[in-house]
């Protein structure tokens, strides 16, 4: 039985979120959409108290080990898939940004210094900050989800079939225009069909005339099966090695098919039931 619900709500952080959900077999699938993370503390008096109550900006400052955040972070844009057993999978920007390296050197490009100069807070740590916000985040798994490697692959032919779409949304988790020298974006799409659900989490990086990179995580679950297939792929190429026009590198869907594969892993996620 499928049931779709829509809701507007105000959370404790005074964020108004638009939510929509669907019940799909044992899965309750929902997403929240809200506004951009503020650039400064919004409740200084509250955040300075010693009671572990913080605004979203201060939570990000405390949780992340990077000197600057992307231009646009949507802290309440979250996709959640909850199983009747209590198992849970979600996709959120905070956990994704925790995977941004604070140890490796940034990509050496001509625009790097200009980018850093526009962000004074990043100047002190510029030697070890990945200013492209590259992340290999694959989603956040709850305790009842067991992960193992598998040779089984996602049935992409099934995904191409023109069946009825019961539920769909495309959420932006964060985005940065790299000081007008490209794009760094993380987004997640959910599609629920009559016999399966499918998630595509995509990190896309384009540094103009320098580099194009993608990290994509796909999750696929057939209704009435007891597992999910998760496929992670990393692709990357210098702009000079891509034999396509620069104008074709602007959109992720146009350029990613031309990127060489650097890494791929397929896993089986099984929901753990209590005995």
User: Low-confidence spans: pLDDT under 50, at least 5 residues?
Assistant: 123-127
Which structural class should the secondary elements be placed in?
mainly beta
Main sheet record: 8 strands, antiparallel
Helicity level: 10-25%
User: What do the pLDDT scores average to?
Assistant: 85
Radius of gyration: 20 Å
Gross morphology is: globular
Distance between the termini: 26 Å
Element-level helix/strand string: EEEHHEEEHHEEHEEEEEHE
Proportion of beta-strand residues: 35-45%
How do the strands line up in the largest sheet? 4-9-10-11-12-13-14-8
Please give the count of helices. Answer: 6
The strand count comes to: 14
Note the main attributes of this structure.
single chain, 275 residues, mainly beta, 12% helix
Structural commentary:
With 275 residues, this protein is mainly beta. 12% of the residues lie in helices and 41% in strands. It has helices at residues 44-47, 56-63, 93-97, 112-117, 156-160, 252-255, and strands at 2-10, 16-24, 27-33, 72-73, 78-83, 88-91, 140-141, 145-149, 167-176, 182-192, 196-207, 211-222, 227-238, 261-271.
């Amino acid at each position: 039985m499928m049931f779709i619900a829509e809701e507007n709500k105000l959370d404790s952080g005074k964020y108004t979120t638009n939510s929509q959900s669907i019940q799909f077999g044992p899965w309750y699938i929902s997403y929240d959409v809200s506004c951009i993370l503020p650039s400064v503390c919004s409740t200084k008096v509250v955040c300075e108290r010693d009671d572990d109550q913080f605004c979203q900006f201060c939570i990000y400052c405390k949780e992340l080990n990077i000197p600057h955040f992307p231009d646009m972070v949507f802290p309440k844009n979250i996709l959640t898939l909850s199983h009747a057993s209590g198992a849970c999978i979600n996709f959120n920007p905070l956990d994704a940004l925790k995977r941004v390296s604070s140890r490796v050197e940034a990509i050496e490009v001509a625009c790097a210094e200009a980018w850093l100069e526009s962000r004074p807070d990043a100047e002190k740590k510029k030697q070890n900050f990945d200013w492209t916000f590259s992340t290999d985040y694959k989603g956040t798994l709850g305790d009842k989800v067991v992960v193992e490697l598998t040779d089984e692959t996602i049935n992409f032919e099934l995904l191409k079939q023109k069946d009825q779409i019961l539920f769909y949304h495309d959420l932006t988790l964060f985005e940065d225009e790299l000081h007008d020298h490209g794009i760094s974006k993380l987004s997640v799409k959910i599609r629920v069909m009559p016999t399966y659900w499918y998630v595509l989490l995509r990190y896309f990086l384009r540094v103009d005339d320098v580099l194009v990179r993608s990290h994509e995580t796909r999750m696929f679950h057939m209704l009435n099966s007891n597992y999910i297939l998760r496929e992670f792929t990393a692709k990357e190429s210098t702009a000079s090695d891509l034999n396509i026009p620069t104008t074709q590198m602007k959109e992720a869907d146009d350029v990613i098919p031309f990127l060489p594969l650097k890494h791929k892993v397929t896993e089986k996620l099984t929901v753990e039931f209590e005995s």
